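Re: weekly structure request thread

Next one in the queue (143 aa):
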Amino acid sequence: MMTNPDPAARTGTSIWRRLELRNELPAQLRYDFMVFKDKKSIDRIQVAAWIGVSLTLCLFGLDYFRYKEGGFADPDQAAYLKAFFYWHLSGILFLVPALHTTFHKNWIKETRWRRGIVIWGMVALTFFSSWASRSWSICIGAA
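Done, posted below.
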């Protein structure tokens, strides 16, 4: 019978205990990390909002190209293209967090309440945008 030469394996301690990882952080360090994480989230939200605005503008160009090519006149494609247009129209709402985080970033970062409103507002806006696209496509008969 082979025995394991590792003394920790013989005593039955887990691998995590052998690595001696700390599970608890000091309260101040935990708070500082949370503040740092929230502030970085505001930076990421600003970038995501501007990407949403720029993609919306590009998609309006695509919609215009489809309109000029006669895609909206074709009855088979018109419902889908109208649904896409309305979905792209909802992308303009990303201009609100983009401008707000650009001009008021330091004010937002001052308190956790403001950071939370901006973070969860962006999440809600993203869900609204996807819900609106589905609702509009149902309303015009594309789904």
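The CA atoms of residues 28 and 72 lie 59 Å apart. Residues 27-68 form the longest helix (42 residues).
Next request, please.
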